[in-house]
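Section 5.1 Outputs to date
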Amino acid sequence: MLGNFIYRLDKHAELLAAWEKLLHTDTDDELHGIIRSRILVDFFAQLYLIQSAERTGLFHIPSYIADMQRRFNAEYHMPYSLDELAEEYRVNKFRLCREFAKYYEVTPMQYLNTVRMEKARELLLHSDKKVVEIGQLVGIENANSFIRLFKEKNGVTPLAYRRKTPVL
C-alpha cells in the first residue's frame, strides 16, 4: 500500500510542510481540533491547486504574483492599494487582479483581507488587546471597517468571537 500514493509530497515543500504540521499537532481539545481542521483544509487546497495547475499547465506562477502573495502573508499590516501595486509591478491593475485570481482564486485584496482576518482571530484569542488595537495591528486603521469586515468573514463581531471562543 505504501507505493500507491496519490501524490508525491516530497515534490512540493509547502505541501509537505503543511502535512508535517498536521501530523505533529497532537493536542486533543476543541481549539486544537479547529486548528487541525484548518491545516487539513489548507493541505487539501494546496494539493488541489497543485494537481489543477499541473493538469492545466498553469503551474508556473509569475514571480510578481508570488511575490505579492508572500508580501501579503508577511506584511499584512501594511497599507496596500491596487494602484500602487500595479505601479510597483508595472502591470495594469486589472491584469494584476485577473492574474492573481487565476492562481489564488480570489482577488489580491480579498486574499489580503483573509490573511488579516486570520491574524485578527489569533490576536483576539491570544492577547488582551482592544478590538481597535487589533484592527490597527492587522492593517485596518478604521475600527468600524475592521468590525464590519470581521463580522462579514466570521459571522460575529470581534468582541463576540473573543467571548464565545474558549481560550487555552
